[in-house]
Fold PHP domain-containing protein.
Amino acid sequence: MLLKIDLHVHTDRSPDGCSSIGEIAEAAKRKGLDGVAITDHDLILGESDALKLSCELGTLVIPGVELSTPEGHLIVLNPKREFGGLPLRAVAESARQDGSILIIPHPMDPLSHGIGFSEASSLILYSPLIEALNASTLNRYNSRAKDFALRNSLPMVAGSDAHLADAVGDAFTVVDSPSCDMASVLSSISIGKTAPSGGRTSAATAAKTVCTRLIRRIRG
Ligand SMILES: [Zn+2]
Ligand SMILES: [Zn+2]
């Protein structure tokens, strides 16, 4: 079956996130998604919490984290340990030993802490997936990410990088999975049965995200 999953979503547990997990799950269902991966900044959502949330919210919640390594951002799906402060390649090494999945988000976007061409090249041996479409990244950086994936025969994914529920699902990954349970979906992602889909977040939604973030900061 083909499942639509947004593999890059931030909740209000991220310092710059604006929506609760409940609001995100509602938005995902409204937009016809089959699930979301929660990838808060440096804050792991583990497998057991993700399973609990999936049941409570009625949509698949995939465990994950977006790490801020010294070299730039790296997403780990189904993380099994804390990575606090480790450099990029040490994270990749540990995560792959654990059987976790690596996604290089917005790799060619220097404005969003993308790791860039040479660091991305150094991770090829860890079989990462490449986020070839990030709804918050400029088209030219997405194009470069897609070129990089194609040149190196790496599987491609997409995610909204939503920090507000309105943006969830603007970009998403079509996952070809034998069933919709978490283990099957993770296994299908890990072997690259993925295709990026969707587009970029509208200027109106991006502006609403900035305003909502400001209001949240003012209110403390
Ligand atoms: Zn990022
Ligand atoms: Zn992000």
Remarks:
- The chain has a mean pLDDT of 96.
- Residues 66, 73, 105-106, 112-113 surround zinc ion (ligand 1) (CB under 6 Å).
- The first strand starts at residue 2 and ends at 9.
- The radius of gyration is 16 Å.
